[in-house]
Amino acid sequence: MSTDPIGVPTPGRVRPRRLRATPAVRRLVREVDVHPRQLVLPVFVREGLDEPRAIASMPGVVQHTLDSLRGAVAQAAAARLGGVMVFAVPRVRDAVGSQATAPEGILNRALTVAAQEAGDALVVQADLCLDEFTDHGHCGVLTPDGRVDNDATLVRYAEMALAQAAAGAHLVGLSGMMDGQVAAVRDALDAAGYDEVAVLAYAAKYASAFYGPFRDAVESQLVGDRRTYQMDPANRREAAREVAIDIAEGADVVMVKPAMAYLDVLADVAATSSVPVAAYAVSGEYAMIEAAAAAGWIERERAIRESVLSIRRAGADHVLTYHATELAGWLAEEYR
Ligand code: PBG
């Protein structure tokens, strides 16, 4: 083969474009795919609504009633998604997040509805965190001087896991970033006989501006930030440490969150994890695509497909995305 003066093969024989020349050859050599089973739809339920309510910063996403949740879960199952992740907004909040553990609390009721509707078709996942339930908006309970009390929070998380398992959750998603949370929840589940309920650890969850619209979706009461428990966006190596700890504590799945701005972290985790790896395309990622598409600045469908494909390419086994059901519909055409 001929080469140029610095050794790079010259065109003529070496032509990567040959494998891009037709749709058929491009299809043959694609390295990754997105399949509906790899998509998980996050859903919001709000206590006390008569009808679904739009979320202004997430056009197309709503706060569901228990009734409309049923419909969304049925659609997710029909689209052959991998699962749904349930979040809920209670009417009453207090210092310890009592409604998170009340059997009749809105999240637990929503989980029962979702599990009934899903049957064996979907993995019903529960957000396990206190921020929607506390009047101060933090992910844990506070010490008298206002700090997030790690170990007192673990007690609440263990209680919450039991309430969610009793409600019918197949998997609990620990999003609070407390130290020791996976072990605390695993021990509590096992002691109560819920050894088949899986634990997904938000292992590398960063203190991110991209959660902005989510705070709207759950009407967050937070003043301040979560930097004493969520990770610093500057830290890549630290993610490996968090993942190793969570796997050692018994996590069944580890997650990286957000997704698009953290694909380097995701690739690292995917390369070393011994358990499946999830990534969460968060509310701000959704909002950016929707806003730019609404302005006519990007092609909506292509941008959605490319973003999820990129998250898969970086190594996610499955992806939480608010676009899950719609995207699965487009993919179904391809797999026919
Ligand atoms: C905490 C939680 C958050 C999100 C998922 N779980 C908010 C936060 O950590 O502040 C964000 C999800 C999103 O932005 O889509 N319960």
Automatic annotation (TrEMBL):
It comes from Cellulomonas gelida. GO terms for molecular function: porphobilinogen synthase activity; zinc ion binding. The active site is at 205 (schiff-base intermediate with substrate), 257 (schiff-base intermediate with substrate). Its EC number is 4.2.1.24. Mg(2+) binds at residue 242. SMART domains: ALAD. Belongs to the ALAD family. GO terms for cellular component: cytosol. Pathway: Porphyrin-containing compound metabolism; protoporphyrin-IX biosynthesis; coproporphyrinogen-III from 5-aminolevulinate: step 1/4. The keyword Membrane does not apply. One of its GO terms (biological process) is protoporphyrinogen IX biosynthetic process. Homooctamer. Catalyzes an early step in the biosynthesis of tetrapyrroles. Binds two molecules of 5-aminolevulinate per subunit, each at a distinct site, and catalyzes their condensation to form porphobilinogen. It catalyses: 2 5-aminolevulinate = porphobilinogen + 2 H2O + H(+). 5-aminolevulinate 2 binds at residues 283, 322. Keywords: Heme biosynthesis, Lyase, Magnesium, Metal-binding, Porphyrin biosynthesis. This is Delta-aminolevulinic acid dehydratase. 5-aminolevulinate 1 binds at residues 215, 226. Coiled coil: none annotated.
